[in-house]
Specification:
By secondary structure, the chain is of the alpha/beta class. The protein has helices spanning 2-8, 11-17, 43-50, 65-78, 89-98, 115-124, 142-146, 169-183, 197-200, 234-247, 253-263, 266-285, 304-310, 330-340, 370-376, 392-404; strands at residues 82-86, 106-109, 131-134, 151-157, 188-192, 210-214, 228-232, 290-294, 317-322, 345-346, 356-358, 382-386. Strand 5, helix 9 and strand 6 (210-214) form a beta-alpha-beta unit.
Length: 406
């Protein structure tokens, strides 16, 4: 009954209280179990653990009470069966894929991804004899043709980093199921939901099997932790958790504590970031120093209609392409704008309460050829803006003065 009630409550309530919707005696804030190992009352505890009792805590690489509390809340927030927390978003993504993919298998992915994910697929998976087939997000029917008997996962990211391309989630799921039907076996669908978060986009409602997210970003929201999460069915997450024990990308108890603290304001922060990002995008569209503004909530966005269909909010990320000044190249112009900002911070991350800016060709999309950058839609004059929760008038004024000074 408690589980049923908690699932009906809002995201904000679930994020604050988790499943503890009953009276009990104890601390209001989850304690930090900053320990590597645990005492047994008797050796009977060790015997119970050896027989598979999950309630026996043994070692914090395996499980930890603080981490478990946050995992439980994340599963509730994301509307998933269960969740496993990792030390970073990349640890979550790579472990989830490798949990079901082995030498001789292949995965299908859209090419416009976070640079770290793309480079891992490009550089590391082939070393393990795992193939990657990139398909055009505007032609998702290619999924049903590209999939074969060795395909394990169809992986997408939407909105994409940094071009904010929107991938039609429901269509990707439909084409994957079509391929699975042809092959007489299921193929998992996996999404990186970092940019949207559950506040703006519910992948499970659209048929996705597995959600991954860099909890460093909006879930954490304060630019002070590294974490990642995988959410999905119990059977799949159990395999991911087991592989995580071997790979060692476990979450730290203190980071988990800070993440749990941050979840209490998660909904408040993201709604404010949505509002600020839309207002800033509208303002920058009017600036003559800007070639184009990319934001899913603008009618000018190429996939605006898809975004409206699958998103309840358009997120806190805005990408602009500046017009090159006469004295500078496009990337030099972008750098000058970033250097002229006073309120926004020139730093390589996103999702925090502070507005951050970065130049993709110097950050997320380094070590890519011109052909790869073109395929990703990344240009030298792009600036990625992670809009924070500052006063919107201050942000608009800051970007206008920075642009006017080039």
């Amino acid at each position: 009954m408690k589980k049923k009630i908690s699932q009906q409550l809002s995201i904000a309530t679930r994020a604050i209280h988790g499943k503890k919707l009953f009276a009990f005696k104890g601390p209001v804030a989850t304690p930090i179990y900053q320990t590597s190992t645990y005492r047994f009352e008797t050796s009977e505890d060790a015997i119970r653990y050896a027989k598979g009792d999950p309630t026996v805590y043994v070692y914090s690489r395996y499980h930890n009470p603080t981490v478990h509390d946050v995992e439980e809340k994340l599963a509730l927030i994301e509307n998933g069966e269960t969740a496993v927390l990792f030390s970073s978003g990349m640890a979550a993504i790579t472990t989830a894929i490798l949990a079901v993919t082995k030498a001789g298998n292949n995965i299908i992915s859209t090419p416009a991804l976070y640079g770290g994910t793309y480079r891992w697929m490009r550089d590391e998976l082939p070393k393990q004899n795992i193939g990657v087939r990139f398909i055009d997000p505007n032609h998702l029917a290619e999924i049903s043709h590209a999939a074969d008997e060795r395909t394990t996962i169809v992986y997408i990211e939407t909105p994409t980093n940094p071009t904010l391309t929107i991938v039609d989630i429901a269509e990707a799921v439909r084409q994957t199921k079509k391929a699975g039907k042809r092959l007489s076996r299921p193929i998992l669908t996996m999404i990186d939901n970092t940019f949207a978060t559950i506040i703006n986009q519910d992948p499970f409602k659209l048929g996705i099997d597995v959600v991954t997210e860099s909890a460093t970003k909006y879930l954490g929201g304060h630019t002070d932790i590294l974490a990642g999460v995988v959410v999905g069915k119990e059977e799949f997450v159990k395999r991911v958790r087991m592989l995580g024990k071997y790979h060692g990308g476990c979450a730290d108890p203190f980071a988990a504590y800070l993440l749990g603290r941050s979840l209490k304001t998660f909904e408040l922060r993201v709604h404010r970031q949505n509002e600020n990002a839309l207002a800033l995008a509208h303002a920058l569209e009017k600036n003559k120093k800007v070639n184009r503004v990319i934001y899913p909530g603008l009618p000018s966005h190429p996939q605006f209609q898809i975004a409206k269909k699958q998103m309840t909010g358009f997120g806190g990320m805005v990408t602009i392409e500046v017009k090159p000044a006469k004295r500078y190249s496009p990337v030099e112009t972008a750098a000058k704008v970033c250097d002229n900002l006073k309120v926004a911070v020139n730093a390589m991350s996103l999702g925090g309460v502070e507005t951050l800016v970065s130049i993709p060709v110097y950050s997320s999309h380094i070590f890519m050829s011109d052909a790869e950058l073109k395929r990703h839609g990344v240009t030298a004059g792009m600036i990625r803006i992670s809009v924070g929760v500052e006063g919107i008038e201050d942000l608009i004024e800051d970007f206008e003065q920075a642009l006017n000074n080039i």
